[in-house]
Amino acid sequence: MPRAKSDNDRKIFVLDTSVILYAHNSIMNFAEHNVVIPITVLEELDQFKKGNDTKNFEAREFIRLLDKLSKDQRIDEWSPLNGKTRGDFKVMMYHPVNEKNANVIFGEDKNDHKILNVALHLQEKEKSKKVILVSKDINLRLKAKSLNIQAEDYETGKIKNITELENTGKYVMDNVDPEAINKLYEQGFIEAKTILGTRKRKSNAYYILKSDKNSVLAFYNSEENVLERVDKRLAYNIKPKNAEQTFALHAIMNPDIKLVSIQGVAGTGKTLLALAGALEQRREYKQIFLARPIVPLSNKDIGYLPGDIKSKLNPYMEPLWDNLKFIQNQYKETDKEFQKITELVNQEKLVIQPLAYIRGRSLSNIFFIVDEAQNLTPHEIKTIISRAGENTKIIFTGDVFQIDTPYLDSQSNGLSYLIDRAKDHPLYAHIKLEKGERSELANLANELL
Fold first, then answer.
1. CB 166 within 8 A of CB 432
2. Which candidate, 155, 162, 214, places its Cα nearest to that of 184?
3. How far apart are alpha carbons 101 and 139 in whole angstroms?
4. Which domains can be identified in the chain, with CATH numbers?
5. Is 210 left (phi over 0), alpha (psi -120 to 50) or beta?
6. pLDDT by residue (tens digit) across 357-404?
7. Domain named PIN: which ranges (predicted)?
């Protein structure tokens, strides 16, 4: 953000509730510019104070932060934000606008329109300063622009180059020396410089190495500075069907990699591979947790669904049970592997639950799979990882282009944030699954519809 040359160059940013619920400390991220919180935002935050979801945490933390910043001063007067390089803030009461009134223009009295009226009032009162509405609500931004109010998304933590991010973790090299590939086949490893030369090497990167005669899959071990051959292997009778699935299962089964993200469209095998890898390594961990965030249909709370809490949650967990049943059905009912899965579930050694039920627990000696991670915020991703104790491995799966929550997108969701921030870390690996393996019919949907 360009720095203001003088006090008159300072901008005024009006924050919407969606920004606060996304990041409670967002008020601190506008450099030396001033920040206004409409009183309507505080009223909306009051409704989010109670609960165990991340949005409830963000609401409570923001209210505490506001109380700390305001000290003994009135919150409806300009007060300095902490730090010499930051501007001022205040909470602005609702102000009707004479010439432009959002309630009148849009024909409805609602909170979004009250927030717009605050921005309109500031435009009229602070003519020497640029007023910008910041919201993660696209519809509110469109309404603002129709009133000639400059409106922006909250950009902090947003990934700039999503295309580059997609290519993280896997590389294809053509015209590799056939002798080097033969050596890699024969002894299982080769010095990285033999094939990669002076190329920049990223920790836990995967390679498809091709010559005019043959090809091989390889993994870069940064600790040993070697390329290791990657072979297809079974995990609880699930066999990878393509190179990317082979890489994903290798990362899942590698004890030195503690954090893995797997991205891909529906039907590429993300959750299936993660669960199969977990079952194969069940003796190495105390429990296997498989969780996913609950994203209510049409943004309605699960209270709208009939039945007790278990009945309400079952529809959201069903896809996870489907994957488990698919793995179990690789065996006959009389096989010990089939019976072992049933035993693990009955003894709660394998637990499938909503993410909210697991968040906050100690994650020591756990194999933890988080499905649909694209519906998490960066803060939620950080919270989950920060709970990891000794001998814990975490797998995040999801599709960054299939967002089901209204205030996240491909650049601001937690999965994209993780891939961008953790890339090239020795404890982390990322794989993008490209080919759908569910069925030809599923592939048709992904490719044509």
1. yes
2. 214
3. 17
4. 7-152 (3.40.50.1010), 157-231 (2.30.130), 235-448 (3.40.50.300)
5. beta
6. 776 777 899 999 999 999 999 988 998 999 899 999 999 999 999 998
7. 11-142
